[in-house]
């Protein structure tokens, strides 16, 4: 005959057989706190509801960002804060199950990237980009377009203030931010330094103008490309310079028997007299022995100058100088 199982033994066996989720129906002991919120006698759902209400009034109220007289509101979640309610509730019940005092500290997480994005977004309505000073090159003059300061919020300072408010909420929940001036990278005063020289080539009037620090200082007569070999228009730069240059003859029909050859400096067959200022694509500025051609369309695309003139021009035009051909 089987002996009856004692009540105490049966109760213990049933307790062991209970699923883990059954502890949700247990209550926390008297005196239990979560983030300093009393939760004694509450089950899991009641404890969570109580903690969410208490902490929400303090830590999850929206933050007002005030810029002058203009306010913007931002939620704490958008600012990167997350309160780990589920983890705190779970920790409390684990302590209770282990018969330890239940005093769970506030558990929060901060997303630094989200906070940065929020600060940038809050500053966007106040942002005006600075304008760098620049120049507009012309044939007879250079127009200076003045720099303009921009404005915007100091997003680094705003991010710091928002984080401080998240960590230690104030009763007002107001963060103040100021608009600051943003300097352009290139000021109007920088232009003269950035453009120590500039050349314009006026094909119609056969003139080359030299500008130093954006001021016109000299005009030289020139020859340009003949019909079918026009000097190409556009904005170029001085790529390199050479005194007493060697002529690497283009492999073109107009070069005749010299096509593809290399003609040394000083040779009567070398049309590049004294110097060559390269502008790319075989085009350059050079002296010529054919002084009679100056003031006409006579070259195969290059810009010819009197030798006496290119001697003056050469040292005044550094590599990188802008050259407008029109």
What would your notes on this structure say?
This protein has a 5-stranded mixed sheet, with no helix packed on it. Strands 18-21-22-24 form a 4-stranded mixed sheet. A 3-stranded mixed sheet has the order 2-1-6, with helices on one face. It is rod-shaped, with a radius of gyration of 41 Å. The protein has 326 residues and is of the alpha+beta class. The longest helix has 16 residues, at 44-59. It has a domain at 196-325: L,D-transpeptidase catalytic domain-like. Helix 2 (44-59) packs across helix 3 (85-97) and helix 4 (112-123) crosses helix 5 (155-167). The N and C termini lie far apart (119 Å). It contains 7 helices and 25 strands. It has helices spanning 7-17, 44-59, 85-97, 112-123, 155-167, 191-194, 307-313; strands at residues 33-34, 37-38, 63-67, 70-74, 81-83, 103-104, 108-110, 134-137, 142-145, 150-153, 174-176, 179-182, 197-202, 207-212, 215-221, 224-225, 234-237, 240-243, 247-248, 262-263, 273-280, 283-288, 297-299, 303-306, 322-325. The model is unreliable at 1-24 (pLDDT under 50).
């Amino acid at each position: 005959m089987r002996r009856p199982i004692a009540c105490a033994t049966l109760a213990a066996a049933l307790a062991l057989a209970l699923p883990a989720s059954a502890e949700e129906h247990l209550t926390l002991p008297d005196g239990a706190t979560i983030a300093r919120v009393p939760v004694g006698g509450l089950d899991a759902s009641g404890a969570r509801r109580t903690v969410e209400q208490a902490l929400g009034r303090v830590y999850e109220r929206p933050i007002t960002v005030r810029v002058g007289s203009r306010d913007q509101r931002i939620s704490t979640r958008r600012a990167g804060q997350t309160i780990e309610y589920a983890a705190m509730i779970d920790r409390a019940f684990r302590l209770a199950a282990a018969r330890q005092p239940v005093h769970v500290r506030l558990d929060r997480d901060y997303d630094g990237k989200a906070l940065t994005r929020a600060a940038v977004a809050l500053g966007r309505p106040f942002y005006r980009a600075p304008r760098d000073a620049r120049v507009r090159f012309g044939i007879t003059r250079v127009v200076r377009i003045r720099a303009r300061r921009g404005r915007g919020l100091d997003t680094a300072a705003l991010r710091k203030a928002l984080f401080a408010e998240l960590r230690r909420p104030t009763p007002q929940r107001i963060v103040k931010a100021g608009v600051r001036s943003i300097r352009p990278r290139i000021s109007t005063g920088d232009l003269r330094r950035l453009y120590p020289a500039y050349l314009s080539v006026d094909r119609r009037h056969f003139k080359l103008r030299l500008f130093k620090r954006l001021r016109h200082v000299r005009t030289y007569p020139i020859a340009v490309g003949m019909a079918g070999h026009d000097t190409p228009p556009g904005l170029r730069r001085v790529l390199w310079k050479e005194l007493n240059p060697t002529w690497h003859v283009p492999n073109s029909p107009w070069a005749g028997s010299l096509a593809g050859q290399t003609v040394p400096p000083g040779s009567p067959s070398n049309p590049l007299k004294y110097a060559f200022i390269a502008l790319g694509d075989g085009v350059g500025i050079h002296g010529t022995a054919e002084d009679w051609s100056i003031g006409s369309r006579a070259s195969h695309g290059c810009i010819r100058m009197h030798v006496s003139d290119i001697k003056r021009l050469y040292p005044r035009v550094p590599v990188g100088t802008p050259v407008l051909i029109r």
